DNA sequence: GTCTATAAAGAGATAGAC
DNA sequence: GTCTATCTCTTTATAGAC
């Protein structure tokens, strides 16, 4: 019951781990710190997860899945390519900056995964990137964006993923403001207000 | 002689540490691994550095200084705001992707610094960002870039800093190609070829 | 499912000889 | 400046009782 358990309790534990991995980084977060935050002793942790790395894997899986779900919801019913790009950008920043945990860990801590876990998760990552690929391709074909798709996509996602390094949730700008600013920067002249 | 030693030997050791921190991350690189790569025993390491974190500090300092120096050289004699932006972008990608070590560590491993080291290095970082601030401000005033300076700067640097996550040195694109692509993406329509 | 207790390994760092 | 030897502490993980 350890590997494929999606009980409410397990989700709580994964959420707590996500918060700590986000705040301190995976390597610096010990199993004792994790257990204490979960209200249990460190030995009990290994009843829920086979090892520490499995916790990271669960956090990253949860981060990718929530990013994917919110992105799909954001795109629902949207037709115009530029509107799609804005919606996708807002969705991405929303999971990154509002619920600043699992998605951030998914972006920054993949190096600590075992090859097996990486192999398991790489499909999710590719699925998410495919969403971006198709929307950016549409924008290029509609002539509102210019450049090679893969380069534009990597630059856009880089600009977004780096926001976690400088964004201040207490500041005056909302994630949606930032999304608008990026899309306006990438496209010729201002199209949105 | 440990703290303020810039001998050739010390620079070699810092360069080796930079490579390992870049490849495996700071936390996962043990002092034994460092020492082995340096051709000495782990005990000898502490003749050169007070502790492990001091090695990281030296690596980051070296990364910031080389980024700064190359940026200054790139800007020398350049007058046009767009040309300055392109030069600065090329310089940044050059230190990040060609000599893929100390500058990358400087960007990604600041969380493992002690408050004292951070305080020591934050001035260097601010100095480097000021270069970017002034060039982007010039571009906005010259009407070739649009938006708030700080937002544009963070997005541009984010897009650049994220390249280390996906750039393939064996691929067909050079760092200079990428720099051109980014500047063209940020500015209205294509200005450079 | 959680506890206590602890094994086993690895980490950073030190001391003193050469 | 490097070595050997080792200390001390922390880490992940396990075993068995409750």
From TrEMBL, chains A, B:
Protein's UniProt keywords contain Lipoprotein: no
Entry keywords, A to Z: Coiled coil, DNA-binding
Domain of life of the native organism: Bacteria
GO MF annotation, one: DNA-binding transcription factor activity
Pfam families recorded: TetR_C_24, TetR_N
HTH tetR-type domain location: 7-67
Ranges of the DNA-binding region feature: 30-49
Keyword Transcription regulation attached: no
PANTHER family linked: HTH-TYPE TRANSCRIPTIONAL REGULATOR RUTR, NUCLEOID OCCLUSION FACTOR SLMA
Name listed for the protein in its UniProt record: DNA-binding transcriptional regulator, AcrR family
Lineage: Bacteria, Pseudomonadati, Pseudomonadota, Gammaproteobacteria, Oceanospirillales
């Amino acid at each position: 019951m350890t590997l494929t358990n999606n009980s409410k309790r397990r989700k709580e534990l994964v959420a707590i781990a996500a918060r700590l991995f986000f705040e301190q980084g995976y390597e610096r977060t010990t199993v004792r710190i994790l257990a204490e935050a979960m209200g249990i002793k460190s030995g009990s942790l290994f009843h829920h997860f086979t090892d520490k790395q499995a916790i990271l894997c669960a956090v990253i899986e949860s981060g990718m899945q929530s990013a994917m779900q919110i992105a799909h919801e954001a795109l629902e019913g949207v037709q115009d390519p530029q509107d799609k790009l804005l919606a996708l950008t807002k969705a991405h920043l929303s999971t990154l900056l509002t619920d600043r945990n699992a998605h951030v860990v998914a972006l920054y801590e993949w190096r600590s995964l075992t090859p097996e876990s990486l192999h398991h998760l790489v499909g999710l990552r590719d699925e998410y990137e495919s969403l971006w690929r198709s929307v950016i391709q549409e924008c290029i074909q509609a002539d509102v964006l210019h450049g090679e798709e893969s380069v534009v996509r990597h630059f856009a996602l880089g600009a977004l993923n780096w926001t976690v390094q400088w964004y201040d949730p207490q500041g005056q700008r909302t994630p949606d403001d930032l999304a608008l600013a990026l899309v306006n920067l990438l496209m010729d002249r201002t199209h949105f207000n």
